[in-house]
């Protein structure tokens, strides 16, 4: 009797195991037919890079919108043309501006414009000398070219022009000045430079040599020249000019470099 009960119990266990095995097989079949897909979080669609035209339209639209807001509520856009350089005649620069822009350092970091103080004398001294200063942002026309466009456009005028510039002319300006001197036979040009612009570059060297061959006198500014600018072109009030510590030393350094270039 006990043996029979044991056999019946063993068969029930076998049936359970077999049934469980069949169920697992059925589940595996179902998985093979319909594999489960992992659930992913929705991803943002990457933005396509904008074309140059789209960027331009957005920039113009933003600028137009800002301009419209500043010009009135009607939304009308009135473009404002800004000159690539600024000409100041009969005005004086601040002491700080002069000392920063004209300082004759070897490396002119942060000085991204050229300042030009000018004096125009006519023969016989019958008229008052024309004096002033100009500056540029190196946008289109540089200050050297702008002077002959705005201050002295008369090509037939006989005069002597003296410049005190924060930096010597670049290649392009040197070539343009050479052409102007060849065209204006009655013009005499003397340039005093605080610094030499990229004087180690061969094209700069050749440009300065060409300019001197055309009749221009090129000099480096010494401490007395900085004092002259201070007296004539700076709104100094009661303040007196004291040359910076290395002013004379830097003048000697640049003067030797210019002599090597022009020899």
TrEMBL record:
Keyword Metal-binding: yes
Keyword Metal-binding attributed: yes
Cofactor: Zn(2+)
Domain CMP/dCMP-type deaminase: residue ranges: 93-211
Top-level taxon: Eukaryota
One Pfam family this sequence matches: APOBEC2
Keywords: Hydrolase, Metal-binding
Any one GO MF annotation of this record: cytidine deaminase activity
Any single GO CC term annotated in Swiss-Prot or TrEMBL for this entry: nucleus
Residue ranges, annotated region (Disordered): 1-78
UniProt name for this protein: Apolipoprotein B mRNA editing enzyme, catalytic polypeptide-like 2b
Gene that produces this protein: APOBEC2
């Amino acid at each position: 009797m006990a043996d029979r009960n044991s056999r019946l119990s063993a068969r029930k266990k076998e049936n359970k195991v077999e049934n469980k095995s069949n169920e697992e097989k059925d589940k595996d079949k179902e998985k093979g037919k319909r594999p489960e897909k992992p659930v992913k979080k929705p991803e943002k669609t990457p933005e396509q890079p904008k074309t140059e035209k789209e960027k331009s339209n957005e920039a113009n639209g933003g600028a137009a919108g800002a301009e419209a807001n500043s010009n009135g509520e009607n939304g009308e856009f009135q473009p404002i043309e800004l000159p690539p350089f600024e000409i100041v005649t009969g005005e004086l620069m601040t002491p700080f501006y002069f000392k920063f822009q004209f300082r004759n350092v070897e490396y002119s970091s942060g000085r991204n414009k050229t300042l030009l103080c000018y004096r125009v004398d006519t023969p016989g001294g019958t008229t008052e000398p024309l004096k002033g200063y100009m500056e540029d942002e190196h946008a289109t026309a540089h200050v050297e070219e702008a002077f002959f466009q705005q201050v002295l456009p008369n090509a037939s005028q006989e005069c002597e022009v003296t410049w005190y510039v924060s930096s010597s002319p670049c290649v392009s300006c040197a070539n343009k000045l050479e052409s102007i001197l060849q065209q204006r036979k009655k013009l005499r040009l003397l340039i005093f430079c605080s610094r030499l612009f990229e004087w180690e570059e061969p094209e700069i060297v050749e440009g300065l040599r060409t300019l001197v061959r055309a009749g221009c006198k090129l000099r480096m500014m010494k401490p007395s020249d900085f004092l002259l600018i201070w007296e004539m072109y700076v709104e100094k009030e009661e303040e007196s000019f004291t040359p910076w510590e290395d002013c004379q030393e830097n003048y000697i350094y640049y003067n030797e470099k210019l002599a090597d270039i022009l020899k």
